[in-house]
Amino acid sequence: MLAITETWIQQDDSASVAALSYGGLHFSHCSRPENRQGGVVGILLSPRCTFQVIPPVPSLTFPSFEVHNLRLFHPFSLRVAVVYRPPGSPYQFLDHFASWLSHFLSCDIPTIIMGDFNIPVNTPISPPASQLLALTTSLGLSQLCDSPTHSEGNILDLVFSRPSSISFFDQINFY
């Protein structure tokens, strides 16, 4: 499984989706609304994975971030979300993310949430970082990425999971 953020793939771009689906891979993604540029998040999955897209809940679709949700059924049961938060004010995002996260975590299924949050959590004294980490910790999530994911040495790409969820994986790589 590979989470991809900022793909810039348009809804009608079947050539890019086909290229990503080479060799039987599955590329599941959602597009940005037509009036917004950039972004787009997706998940590339092995051909042996059986999954279903979790449709967005209209009342939990926010302008401060994009999210694509899947439910994996095989080879194991897992809820997966890939998130992209564009640079800008994180405070509106934190309120929106808290609402979305409470809903997403309402199922007692192993869960992984990953993506580009554009909040450097390696400087936890910054209010946005400390608030994001406090929120996720209060909901029983652990942040798994502990090495820089940005050229300036910051950790912007994050992976959150409940401790019981990560037992599925022998290894998690961050790039």
Characterize the structure shown.
The protein has 175 residues and is of the alpha+beta class. The protein has helices at 14-20, 90-104, 127-138; strands at 2-4, 26-30, 41-45, 50-54, 66-74, 78-84, 111-116, 142-143, 157-161. It has a domain at 47-168: 4-Layer Sandwich (Deoxyribonuclease I, Chain A). It contains three helices and nine strands; from the N terminus they run βαβββββαβαββ. The strands form two sheets. The protein has a six-stranded mixed beta sheet, covered by helices on one side. The chain has a three-stranded antiparallel beta sheet with strand order 1-3-2, with helices on one face. β5 (66-74) and β6 (78-84) form a beta hairpin. α2 packs parallel to α3 (127-138). The protein is globular, with a radius of gyration of 16 Å. 28% of the residues are buried. The mean pLDDT is 82. Residues 2-163 form the Endonuclease/exonuclease/phosphatase domain. InterPro entries: Endo/exonu/phosph_ase_sf, Endo/exonuclease/phosphatase. It comes from Engystomops pustulosus.
Concise structural overview:
InterPro entries: Endo/exonu/phosph_ase_sf, Endo/exonuclease/phosphatase. By secondary structure, the protein is an alpha+beta fold.
